[in-house]
Predict the structure.
Amino acid sequence: MRIDVLTLFPEMFTGVLGSSILKKAAEKQAVSYHIEDFRRFSDNKHKAVDDYPYGGGAGMVLKPQPIFDAVDHLTQNTTTSPRVILLCPQGSRFDQKKAEELSQEEHLVFICGHYEGYDERIREYLVTDEISIGDYVLTGGELGAMVMIDAVVRLLPGVLGNDASPIYDSFSQGLLEHPHYTRPADFRGMKVPDILLSGNHAKIEEWRKQESIKRTKERRPDLWSRYQSDPLEED
């Protein structure tokens, strides 16, 4: 996978993409990252990328020219059409299903805006997806892009070391993940459930499934209401 990020603050990505799983994914050549300062594509002599909105109003609006030219530059030699993602509070809510969908793509382009907003022509004629990570407003799209990149890259084959790991993540199967325990079996009188020490893998899997159901019901009734469970799994 190739991931391009258009941002006015490329230095924000250095630590995130150069650490932990995201760094290892690049080292394994599962993904390549390219961070572009789209200010360099501005045709303005002062390299301005924003202007006052037509009709008046507060704040500044990102101009279409630098964004369009930057995307043209990134895609001029590509053989496939990338998903061009606009980080925007007005976009659809990002979730695990969207991360799984995007992980199947070969090329992703993230556009991180600042200021009051984007010229509407960017939305209408350039991007394929408008996505938000939550119902709140940040100073820019960079943090949202980092969240999405992390969620997507960890799903790429071979990145986590154990390809079965993402299957049991919270949300992947519609439920929150079951509890986990490790050594020691007895810590300050707090004991690991006996079933996990039994060696009976069938019963352990059933315990984990029931714990996932219980946890989802208690903590996220909205998820539980959407979960299509078998009749035997319902209380």
Notes: The first helix runs from residue 14 to 17. The chain has two domains: 2-153, 170-233. The helical segments are 14-17, 20-27, 64-75, 96-102, 120-125, 142-153, 201-219, 221-226. The beta strands are 2-7, 32-37, 50-51, 61-62, 83-93, 107-111, 117-118, 129-132, 186-187, 190-191.
